[in-house]
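for the record, two folds in this file. i put them one after another cuz i was lazy. first one right below, seq on top, structure tokens after. the second one comes after a little note so u can tell where it starts
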Amino acid sequence: MRILTIGDKESKSLWDYYQPEKLEGVDLIISIGDLDPAFLSFLATFTHAPVYYVHGNHDEKYEKRPPDGCECIDDRIIVYEGVRILGLPGSLRYRPGMYQYEQHEMDAHVRRLFFSLQFHGGIDILVAHAPAENVGDGRDRPHQGFRALRSLLAEYRPRYFLHGHVHPNYSREYTRLKRFEDTLIINGYESYIFEYETEYETQFPKVKEKEGYDFTPEFLGKMKKKRDQEQKEAEKQAEALTAKK
């Protein structure tokens, strides 16, 4: 199965300079959020492939103008051609917004999916706008990941995790491919096409070799401790600057 994942920035290649052959052979399109609904509608019009999407933190406009011909998979598991796909919306809350959540709120989203996860016997692809905590997320609050997503990866070990939100132009944490235990993580920024049956077998060993370490609980704990220390130091510096003024 050939899957096109898109998000965060409308691909000019697929919109402004669209040619039918660019979607040739694509079996499924998955949006990981923060895209113009007209762009999704455009793709749905020019392909026979289903277009699934989750809401990004900037997608409140979908309430007035949802993308035509597309299906929202927020907080649900769908099965397409035997592949179990779970979608979760939004980002960590850093300002008022419909699709922004505190950690405990995303924990609740996942708890509500418990029976569905048991019924389907797990998942093959996890789709979210935000990354998982300490796995390719940013250090600033707006781009920190959800602990609930990391828990899903650890417990259900899907083959793929598709997310966005962390852009290449403003985060040194950005990488297109990462891994967490048995999961190949794909940052779908703008666009990325992969073959469900073969990408894992070809890319996962390369990513594992490149990273050279495992995301053990001990390692994640050290990362969190370091991040907390850096945040405290930043807060102290900000307080010092305010005091000088």
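(here's the note) second protein begins now
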Amino acid sequence: MFAALASSHSLLHKAARFFALLLPIALAACVSTQSPSQQAVRRIDPAYVAMYGPRPDEPHPLPATDISEVDPRFLRREVAYYGREEPGTIVVDTQSRYLYLVREGGRAIRYGIGVGKEGLAWGGRARVGRKAVWPSWTPTASMIRREPERNAKWASGMEGGLNNPLGARALYLYDGGRDTMYRIHGTTEPWSIGQSVSSGCIRLFNQDIIDLHSRVPVGSPVIVLQGQRLFDVDDEMRVSSAY
């Protein structure tokens, strides 16, 4: 009996030593040797790297846009489209932070957008009344009151360029010949795409507004939705799974 107890004690002692030797190895396996910055890097599709790459051919050579921190759903892509609008129509869904350019065959090009305070001030139907390449910008009186240190010095206008808040292109919306003061434009703040921001109308990545500007002629119809979704839940799920 005592021999059996001694044997059992010896086996337990050996097992304890074995697990003690394994413990540091197990703990090491739980600790990454990568730095936090290395762990946070997300692989970006090379097609998107090229899509948002530099544009040295522009009047103001445009650097690449850093999309490493952008939610991928706000990057430009073609999707299935379940609305009833005619091809060539621009549909701005301010609630979902998307702009659609309707195409043939139930398809659309979808762009991520940022929505500024001025972008929430108007909704309805209009047309592209004017287009501009590297547009000048004049802040509104309300923008100057809201951010005087930032905007007051440009009360007489700012020439187009890399620091201009309207970015590389702008589409000006008109309703029956009247300027609605509503703009679809680029941005100097790419991090704001997908967000609600303090000023501006509807902003896109500069590479995206260049693409949209090249596809739509003056006179193109535009629908701006405020406080309503373009698709119901089921349709949105189908759109999101269509790529």
